[in-house]
Amino acid sequence: MKSKKTIYLAGPLFTYAELEFNCKLRTLLENQGFSVFLPQEDAEDAKIEHERKAQAFIFERCVKGVENSDLVVAVLDGTDVDSGTAWEIGYAYAKGKPILGLRTDFRELSNGIVNLMIELAVEGLARDKAEFLSLLKPYR
To answer: Sorting pLDDT into bands at 50, 70 and 90, what band is 17?
Structure first.
C-alpha cells in the first residue's frame, strides 16, 4: 500500500480568519489523500509556547516539519507574503522541496502576482480552489 505524502502547510497564523482558513485547507488536503503538518497545531500551541518563551522549540518543530515533508503548500494572501511563510518557502526551496502557492487574494503587484522571489520559487501558483486541486494532482 502506498503511504501518504506529507505536506507542510505554510501560511500566516495570527488572526482567527487565518487560523480557520488554514484548518479548512488542511481538511481539503487530507481529503485529497495527503498527511498535513499544520504548524499552528503540530508545532505547538502558539499562544502558550509564546507565553513560555519557547520560540526555539517552535522554530525547531517547524524546521523539522519542512525537512520531513514531501511538498510545501504556501498560502500567499495579503498585501505581502507573511514573513514566516516567506522563510519557510526559502528553506524548502534550498532543501529541494517542491512548493505550491495558493493566493486567493485578488490584489496583484504591478509586475507580478507576488514578490518575484516567491513567485519564481514555487512550482505552481493557484488563484482558486479548482486551480489548486489541479496543481496537486501530480504530487499524489
So the answer is: very high
